[in-house]
Amino acid sequence: MHGTQILDEADRLMTVCNSCRYCEGLCAVFPAMEMRRAFSDGDLNYLANLCHSCGACYVDCQFSPPHEFNVNVPKTLAVARAESYAAYAWPQALSGAFARNGLVISIVAALSMAAFILGFAALNDRNVLFGVHTGSGAFYKLMPHNAMAALFSAAFLYAIFALVMSVRAFWRDIGTPIGGRADGGSIVQAIRDAGELRYLHGGGVGCYNEDDKPTDRRKLFHHLTFYGFLLCFAATSVATLYHYLWGREAPYPWWDLPVVLGTLGGIGLIVGPIGLFVAKSRRAPELLDEQRYGMDVGFIAMLFLTGLTGMLLLILRETAAMGPLLALHLGAVFALFITMPYGKFVHGIYRFAALVRYAQERRSEAGS
Amino acid sequence: MSSKYDVLVIGGGNAALCAAISARRGGASVLVLEGAPKFYRGGNTRHTRNMRCAHDAATEILTGPYTEEEFWEDLLRVTGGQTDEVLARHMIRESKDILNWIVEQGVRWQPSLGGTLSLGRTNSFFLGGGRAMLNALYLTAERLGVDVEYDGEVTDLVIEDGMFLAARLKRPIKGETEIRATSLVAAAGGFEANIEWLKQYWGEAADNFLIRGTPYNRGSILKMLLDKGVQEVGDPTQCHAVAIDARAPKFDGGIITRHDSVVFGIVVNKHAQRFYDEGEDIWPKRYAIWGRLVAAQPDQIAYIIFDSTVVTSFMPTLFPPIAGQTVAELAGKLELDPAALEKTITEFNAAVRPGTFDHTILDDCVTEGITPPKTHWARKIETPPYLAYPVRPGITFTYLGTRVTKEARMLMADGKPSANMFAAGEIMAGNVLGKGYAAGMGMTIGSVFGRIAGREAARHAKN
Q1: pLDDT tens figures, B293-333
Q2: I need a labelling partner for B131 at 20 to 30 A (CA). Which of A106, A137, B369, B392 fits?
Q3: A41 CA to chain B: closest CA distance, Å?
Q4: Alpha carbon of A204: minimum distance to chain B alpha carbons (Å)
């Protein structure tokens, strides 16, 4: 028996599924399951993080409820997945953040935005805060560039460090041999699989969400969100290079690379999360991990807020609203960064690690 | 209140849906009456996973050609010649096109599943299994404008002189109604879930049978048709039975309750006695004989006994094996006489001759001097823990059906073809399969004759 109820249930289901195997063509979970006859905690956490929750195996299963075998793989693995985030969180003292994640994220976000607003108000006089600033270096009249860079680098580096520590624990748990390294080929394969969301496809026809018809558009909205996020990240990175390499200070004209990237990314970060939220609210309750609703929505909301404040800042940057909007945007981004290791963001990291592991297993199986 | 359709399809599995889609594509208005609630729709198709179709060349998912002639020879072999050659050859010819036609109806194929490599050349597997196939067919049928009604019981068929006029339908909420239709397609399966009916041939033993598939195949439509003058085909006393785990539910346990570990050990009855050569033949042939063998044992129960050395030689099982550190301990858990089981295993072990074990061929590991012998794969059972699976007969389907022509048209008892009644699927499988079975044939019969029945039923209705 395993440490938790949900892992016991996942073990029961994988035993049922392993004696059936009808779903092996749908995604990576079932072929990975077939490489095993018994399932350790790490195995189950690995399978849980391979699952993209497309719903196909539920709709296709002859044993899903009301059948007495009560096979509901998407929901069970969703719960197991969420619990795995807490189980591997670093430091463990903060793993409780996953328990009431929506609340935690909202409080951190609210505090962070309030801090920036108050900080701006305290450090700038009224005329500066509500003044109209244009031209190079306008943002830094409100907060010096070096202060901004130092604060956000610290937050970002902390997030990276905590994520690395967490995923390291996950990787050690799911790997055999323990602590095995990932090879380049498997990483490339996993980047491809993650980049195209290969397994969020219902076995080819599309995902299932509200009923037994494959009408789900989550893949599209997830792409908008994910690539929107990457574009925004790229925008910031390019701007940093501009700043330090060429001494070109933000804000930049609308046609300049950081703004173009940021605008496209911002649109993705607004449209994508809205689409994901609508899809989530329509999802059939039997597929939904209701307890984790706050975590999912909290993360969606943070991304949306980041996109929205960023876009508003772009549109209104030459007006008196720029100061307060900059504070809001920085507050949102700061909250996003420091909550990264303790919210839904980690799903991407764990899933990626699981995909690397899967690619490795496939390679060694093909080689043997 | 009554309603009128061109084609009424009774049943909701592969055959019924292929008939409905093909009739609808032929321009007919179609109603499908599925007796089960929506979740359990599809009869035994829910539990299937592949279909056997002839093809002249390898495809994306099939590893090599499987000619019409080879299919025919396989059919001849498994039925021991108990088949209608004209009908069977017609079905095999039509099966070639089904490979494509079924994809046009939304069904997706995949290569053979892990653990079924022996079927990779002959059988096409449904991506996601039988329920996924059904979902695709239902979706297509609904898009085409086929009406589907669930959860209603057909209580009577009005048939005059071999001519179908109407069906009486009892619905749980909306009450009784009469449905008239110009043509009827009966695709409502066999009677394997009707224990009372099985008892007519098997006596009280049938109480110990487990039904692998849908509890809704009670044979009521089959019975009505035969009572109203349709000619019967197939041996009513026979059914397809395999040995499945005795801990499986009474109905609907599906494929996951099966056991394929017989060759790795011995099989004893409730008196701890062996009763048949466990090494007689290779999968899948041996698979289909053990249901019948167990049915003939007292209380219809038997135990596959093996030891810890072979645990990983077969697919993982739904139910774990029952284990004992000694033979006596295992016997206690199985409620067998410990002394008797020890004696059986000791005698078996003493009879095992040295050989080179290879479970993929008929190897040279045999016993000498015991009855029954184990003629292949005989190895000593001597490494604890000792393990066992209790097994009972698991009934898959029945052979009794309605006789049909190549057009899937029912024949009446007097030999005349019915004007407007057609049949497809398990309800007429006995025309092709007099006995025996080969993987995927049930679905071939369903799709081929379903498609034909729908086409002919629509043609009749539109004339």
Answers
A1: 999 999 999 999 999 999 988 889 999 999 999 999 999 99
A2: B392
A3: 19
A4: 9
| Angle value at C-alpha B289, between B285 and B294, nearest 5 degrees | 150
Does B110 contact A25 at a Cβ distance shorter than 8 Å? yes
Instruction: Please give the Cα distance from B379 to B353 (Å, whole number).
Output: 8
> What is the DSSP track for B411-427?
EBTTSPEEEEEEE-GGG
Q: Tell me the per-residue pLDDT of A4-40, one tens digit each, with 9 for 90 and over.
A: 999 999 999 999 999 999 999 999 999 999 999 999 9
Q: Which residue has the tokens 């956490």?
A: A45
Q: Average pLDDT, stretch B149-178? A: 95
pTM, two decimals, is 0.94
Q: Which residues of chain B are within 8 Å of residue A11 when distances are taken between CB atoms?
A: none
What distance in Å separates the CA atoms of residue A33 and residue A54, rounded to the nearest whole number? 17
Distance CA A304, CA A172 (A): 34
DSSP string for residues in A2-61: -SSHHHHHHHHHHHHHHTT-TTTTT-SHHHHHHT-SS--HHHHHHHHHH-----HHHHH-
The Cα A193–Cα A139 span in angstroms is: 39
For residue B175, how many other CB atoms are within 10 A of its CB?
9
How far apart (Å, rounded) are the C-alpha atoms in residues B423 and B452?
A: 9
Minimum CA–CA partner of A20 in chain B: B256
pLDDT cut 90: percent of chain B above it = 89
Are B397 and B429 spatial neighbours (Cβ–Cβ below 8 Å)?
A: yes
Q: Which two tokens stand for residue B15?
A: 């055959």
A214 has pLDDT over 50: yes
What is the interface pTM, i.e. ipTM, of the complex?
0.94
What is the distance between the alpha carbons of residues A80 and A207, in angstroms, rounded to a whole number?
Answer: 20
Chain A residues touching chain B at CB-CB below 8 Å: 15-16, 18-26, 31, 34, 37, 56-57, 59-63, 66-68, 203-205, 212-213
Inter-chain touch B49–A62, beta carbons under 8 Å: no
Maximum separation of any 2 CA atoms in chain A, in Å: 72
Q: Are strands B302-307 and B386-398 parallel, antiparallel or unpaired?
A: antiparallel
Q: Mean of the pLDDT values across residues B214-242?
A: 95
Residue A176 has pLDDT above 70, yes or no: no
Hey, what are A281's tokens?
Answer: 């609210």
Is pLDDT of A178 > 70? no
> Biggest alpha carbon distance in chain B?
75
Is the pLDDT at B284 greater than 70? The verdict is no
Give the separation between CA A57 and CA A23, rounded to whole angstroms. Answer: 6
Of A24, A26, A62, the CB nearest to B130: A62
Q: Residue B324: CB partners within 8 Å, gap ≥ 6?
A: B330, B331, B332, B333, B384, B385, B386, B387
What is the SS3 assignment for A123?
helix
Q: Residue B1: what pLDDT? A: 44
- Please report, for residues A251, A267, A268, A307, A326, the alpha-carbon distance to residue A264 in angstroms, rounded to integers and kept in the order given: 16, 5, 6, 10, 19
Contact A204 B127 (CB under 8 A): yes
User: Nearest CA to B222 among B234, B213, B210?
Assistant: B234
pLDDT of residue B50 exceeding 60? yes
CA separation for the pair A337, A299 (Å, rounded):
11
Spatial contact of B230 and B410, defined as CB atoms under 8 Å apart: yes
Encoded tokens for B30: 């179609």
DSSP state letters, B90-120: HHHHHHHHHHHHHHHTT--EEPPPTT-GGGT
Q: Are A262 and A310 in contact (CB under 8 A)?
A: yes
> How many pairs of residues across A and B have Cβ atoms under 8 Å apart?
77
Six token digits for residue A355? 């995909």
Exposed/middle/buried for residue B361 (C-beta within 10 Å: 0-12, 13-18, 19+): exposed
